């Protein structure tokens, strides 16, 4: 766990994100404020602590605001008994969170980087995920939300760049949620915190500062397990989540210049995922491309491909395409080669459409 | 040595001043260093000192090593020759020394274990203990007998193939029952799997135990887990899970919640000697100390983790010494002495709740039974050793002698109790065996609070398959 770095902001290259076409329910237009993703998370945490006295925020370095500053100001407002540092021990953080949640609290645990979540794997997979089921619904730790920054950041190398979502998508009993933008992040995080099931919430750390969006200031929630069509199209369906959506959107824009109409879907919740929305879209377009940063083999894209082939086989006009990370550890110098870039996606869109 | 004792006695005075009634609680701890030996020093055969405990690595004398191991907080005063100057490091001031001294791996003498009753059920001289009256004494003994009987019958029932698996508590009845007796029903228990006695004490019925082991429709766990994975919300007893030591950090979280809610209750968690090698044990100890959580760790050091003896598990003086490294109070107790376990847990509970702090209890005991019904422990340990613990050190017999000496128990009562428990169990098994299995829908629900669409779809598909191939599936599961 050494060598974690703090602020990333000034070093990263620009990677814009255009806002969603959809206004979230509950968010009144008057109360909009331009926020980056980090501040949106911070606002969600403020609201969560404010609206439920039995909610707690804890993890490594959260007290002073966290290495990404997502927990800034919380300790001042809610006190160090509800917002606190923990020892540097991920299995301890999650185990502690399970116990806290099992007593009827909202336990909001931060794992400093998704790359460091593995020591907590047993607690998540064998404990949190099975807590309700194994007790016959006598006990649950549904109040547990595990936040972890994930994904590429331009200079993170092996241990500050990983996208480990697929590991958790293989675990019945937990939910996996990844937001794409500030507005989504706030609404989804509040939903996760209040959902009666344990959730792993991966935050695209590349977007913490880069993605800025008009975010409703009030308390609102974005529903889980509901995908969103964020761009309508007729020639091909693109499915992704988190930071990758902005890359995919750029590919859609370029494809449009060449006369290809792409439909872009944000899955938002990876398990249990909204197959119906993807299915309906593929039934319309006849083609599917899935893209994620994680290595292609065994990635969640494989699950989406298989499910859609099962459901839409007769409607598919081309093989399902996956544009993902390579099957290597996440590299430092070679990051630009590893990444599922816009042009890799654009090429795949073209070859799929022209299949 | 003198300066070391000075430091110690100062701590002692301090604590005496703060909580007079904790004196006996700390007694055994102090005893370990021979500073006040009001307690008998017992030789514990299977836990006897090994060469590993003797100082072989370094040539420094034991006293020096031990001295530097002592808490410097108490020693940084000016009277100390070596510590009259201090350096202010993060975490506190530390005295410095010009001598290069390594801290030895363990103290010269092993930490003794706190005893109240000897093997004959006689009170050990000068013993400090929490009084146990007739009602409590008899209930403790009766429940130990009940647990013993339940174990022997369930073991046989498993051998007959009527349940798939079982784990006995043989030899550890005192840790089970006496620790439970010392707690309040409000205390939240996060068990390992060899503590059903706690649940028994709290009123889980024999019938409920049987239902769980048979995984029928009355099993609170809905037939989803192997036998012995009990759990009961009503009894504040979290459902057992098989992974080792995972419950320990959870207990810290539960304890933190109790503290924040201002409850007069603590969390209590159990594991075995093997469990202390897991990362979760260390995570939990450290979190508990830092979070100042009212949690009691009861570690059953029963000598064996399946086939691995403690000598191959750790090189420390057992478990109690590990608490010190984490800044946690600890006590080593004779786990086959119900009164000692009761007293230690009772006091630990008061301390944990009042002081908002964790306490570590190492109960030295012996796993007389096999690890489980899938194990034959004679393959890796001597039958003589098992017999010695089964007969000479039997915790149930020891408490029986004590209740009998008090005139609270007779042979007649003994016969009646054992025969009554046996009858109740046989009846309970018959009832449970005729009960239905849980319905098929219980396969799919409770994965989440509500059944998601993928599970609804899978349920539908499975039902269709069952219709087509009914013989592939057990007929006793209602569809």
Automatic annotation (TrEMBL), chain A:
It comes from the Eukaryota. It catalyses: N(6)-[(R)-lipoyl]-L-lysyl-[protein] + 3-methyl-2-oxobutanoate + H(+) = N(6)-[(R)-S(8)-2-methylpropanoyldihydrolipoyl]-L-lysyl-[protein] + CO2. Its EC number is 1.2.4.4. Pfam families: Transket_pyr, Transketolase_C. The keyword Oxidoreductase applies. One of its GO terms (molecular function) is branched-chain 2-oxo acid dehydrogenase activity. Its cofactor is thiamine diphosphate. Residues 35-210 form the Transketolase-like pyrimidine-binding domain. GO terms for biological process: branched-chain amino acid catabolic process; response to nutrient. Keywords: Mitochondrion, Oxidoreductase, Transit peptide. The keyword Transcription regulation does not apply. PANTHER family: 2-OXOISOVALERATE DEHYDROGENASE SUBUNIT BETA, MITOCHONDRIAL, 2-OXOISOVALERATE DEHYDROGENASE SUBUNIT BETA-RELATED. Heterotetramer of alpha and beta chains. This is 3-methyl-2-oxobutanoate dehydrogenase (2-methylpropanoyl-transferring). It comes from Psophocarpus tetragonolobus.
Automatic annotation (TrEMBL), chain B:
Residues 144-439 form the Dehydrogenase E1 component domain. Pfam families: E1_dh. Keywords: Metal-binding, Mitochondrion, Oxidoreductase, Potassium, Transit peptide. It catalyses: N(6)-[(R)-lipoyl]-L-lysyl-[protein] + 3-methyl-2-oxobutanoate + H(+) = N(6)-[(R)-S(8)-2-methylpropanoyldihydrolipoyl]-L-lysyl-[protein] + CO2. Its cofactor is thiamine diphosphate. Its main location: mitochondrion. PANTHER family: 2-OXOISOVALERATE DEHYDROGENASE SUBUNIT ALPHA, MITOCHONDRIAL. This is 3-methyl-2-oxobutanoate dehydrogenase (2-methylpropanoyl-transferring). It comes from Psophocarpus tetragonolobus (Winged bean).
């Amino acid at each position: 766990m050494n060598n974690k770095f703090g602020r990333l902001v000034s070093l990263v290259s620009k990677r814009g994100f255009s806002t969603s076409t959809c206004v979230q329910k509950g968010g009144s237009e008057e109360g909009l404020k331009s926020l980056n993703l980090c501040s949106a998370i911070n606002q969600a945490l403020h609201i969560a602590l404010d609206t439920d006295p039995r909610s707690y925020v804890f993890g490594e370095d959260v007290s002073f605001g966290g290495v990404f500053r997502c927990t800034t100001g919380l300790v001042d407002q809610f006190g160090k008994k509800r917002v606190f540092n923990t020892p540097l021990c991920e299995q301890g953080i999650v185990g502690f969170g399970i116990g806290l949640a099992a007593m009827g609290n909202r336990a909001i645990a931060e794992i400093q980087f998704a790359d460091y979540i593995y020591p907590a794997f047993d607690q998540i997979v064998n404990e949190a995920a099975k807590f309700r089921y194994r007790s016959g619904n006598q006990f649950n730790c549904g109040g547990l939300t595990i936040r972890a920054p994930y994904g590429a950041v331009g200079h993170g190398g092996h241990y500050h760049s990983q996208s480990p979502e697929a590991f958790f998508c293989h675990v019945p009993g937990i939910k996996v949620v990844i937001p794409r933008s500030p507005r989504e992040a706030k609404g989804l995080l509040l939903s996760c915190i209040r959902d009666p099931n344990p959730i792993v919430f991966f935050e695209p750390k590349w977007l913490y500062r880069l993605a800025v969006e008009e975010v409703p200031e009030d308390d609102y929630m974005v529903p889980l397990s509901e995908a969103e069509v964020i761009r309508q199209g007729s020639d091909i369906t693109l499915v992704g989540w988190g930071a990758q959506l902005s890359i995919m959107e750029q590919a859609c824009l370029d494809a449009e210049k060449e006369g290809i109409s792409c439909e872009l879907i944000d899955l938002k919740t990876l398990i249990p995922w909204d197959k119906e929305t993807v299915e309906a879209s593929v039934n319309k377009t006849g083609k599917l491309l899935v893209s994620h940063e994680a290595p292609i083999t065994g990635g969640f894209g494989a699950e989406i491909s298989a499910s859609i082939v099962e459901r839409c086989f007769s409607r598919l006009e081309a093989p399902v395409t996956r544009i993902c990370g390579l099957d290597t550890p996440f590299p430092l110098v070679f990051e630009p080669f590893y990444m599922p870039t816009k042009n890799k996606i654009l090429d795949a869109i073209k070859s799929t459409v022209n299949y | 040595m003198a300066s070391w004792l000075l430091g110690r006695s100062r701590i002692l005075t301090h604590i005496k001043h703060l909580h007079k009634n904790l004196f006996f609680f700390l007694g055994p701890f102090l005893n370990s260093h021979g500073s006040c030996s009001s307690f008998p020093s017992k030789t514990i055969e299977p836990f006897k000192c090994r060469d590993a405990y003797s100082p072989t690595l370094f040539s420094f004398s034991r006293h020096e090593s031990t001295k530097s191991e002592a808490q410097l907080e108490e020693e940084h005063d000016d009277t100390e020759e070596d510590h009259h100057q201090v350096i202010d490091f993060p975490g506190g001031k530390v005295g410095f020394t010009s001598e290069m001294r390594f801290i030895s791996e363990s103290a010269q003498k092993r930490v003794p274990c706190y005893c109240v009753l000897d093997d004959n059920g006689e009170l050990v001289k000068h013993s400090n203990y929490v009084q146990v009256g007739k009602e409590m004494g008899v209930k403790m003994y009766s429940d130990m007998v009940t647990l013993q009987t339940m174990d022997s019958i369930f073991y046989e029932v498993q051998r007959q193939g009527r349940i798939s698996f079982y784990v006995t508590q043989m030899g550890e009845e005192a840790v089970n029952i006496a620790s439970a007796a010392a707690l309040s029903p409000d205390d939240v228990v996060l068990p390992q799997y060899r503590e059903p006695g706690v649940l028994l004490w709290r009123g889980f019925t024999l019938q409920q135990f049987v239902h769980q082991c048979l995984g029928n429709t009355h099993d609170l766990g809905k037939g989803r887990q192997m036998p012995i994975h009990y759990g009961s919300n009503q009894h504040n007893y979290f459902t057992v899970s098989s992974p080792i030591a995972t419950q320990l950090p959870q207990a810290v979280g539960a304890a933190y919640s109790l503290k924040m809610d201002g409850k007069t209750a603590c969390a209590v968690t159990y594991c075995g000697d093997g469990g202390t090698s897991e990362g979760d044990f260390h995570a939990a100890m450290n979190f508990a100390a830092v979070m100042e959580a009212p949690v009691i760790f009861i570690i059953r050091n029963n000598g064996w983790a399946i086939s691995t003896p403690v000598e191959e598990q750790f090189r420390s003086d057992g478990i109690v010494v590990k608490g010190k490294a984490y800044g946690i109070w600890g006590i080593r107790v004779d786990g086959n002495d119900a009164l000692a376990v009761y007293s230690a847990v009772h006091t630990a509970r008061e301390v944990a709740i009042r002081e908002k702090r964790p306490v570590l209890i190492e109960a030295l005991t012996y796993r007389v039974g096999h690890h489980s019904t899938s194990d034959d422990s004679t393959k890796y340990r001597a039958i003589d050793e098992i017999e010695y613990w089964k007969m000479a050190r039997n915790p149930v017999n020891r408490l029986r002698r004590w209740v009998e000496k008090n005139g609270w128990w007779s042979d007649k009562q003994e016969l009646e109790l054992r025969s009554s428990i046996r009858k109740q169990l046989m009846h309970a098994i018959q009832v449970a065996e005729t009960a239905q299995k849980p319905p098929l829908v219980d396969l799919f629900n409770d994965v989440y609070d509500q059944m998601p669409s993928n599970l609804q779809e899978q349920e539908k598909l499975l039902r269709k398959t069952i219709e087509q191939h009914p013989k592939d599936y057990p007929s006793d599961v209602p569809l």
